[in-house]
Amino acid sequence: MKVILPNGDTQELVMGSLTVEELLQHFDISPGEVLVSKNKRIIPEDTILENDDDVRIMQVVFGG
């Protein structure tokens, strides 16, 4: 799968099926600080990801 990280770096992963939560653990990213999209749609942490998915991990900014 193609993964775009919050810093803009792109990585290709071949890991088989895994959840969003497992993907975030792989990159040591806290789920409370990001949103994840699969094929341009925001998805929850329990979504299963496959090798042919395009995934983007986006940093959430807090403040006023």
UniProtKB/TrEMBL annotation:
Protein name: MoaD/ThiS family protein
Database matches in Gene3D superfamilies: 3.10.20.30
Annotated InterPro entries: Beta-grasp_dom_sf (IPR012675), Mopterin_synth/thiamin_S_b (IPR016155), ThiS/MoaD-like (IPR003749)
UniProt-listed Pfam families: ThiS
